[in-house]
Amino acid sequence: MQKRREIKDYIRTIVDFPHEGILFRDVTTLFADPRGFRICIDQLLDPYAGMQIDKVVGLEARGFILGGAIAHQLTVGFVPVRKKGKLPGATISEDYELEYGSAVMEIHDDALKPGEKILLVDDLLATGGTAEAGIKLIERLGAEVVGSAFVIDLPDLGGRARLEAMGQDVHVLATFEGA
Question: Is the omega angle on the peptide bond into residue 18 within 30 degrees of 0, that is, cis?
Answer without folding.
Answer: yes
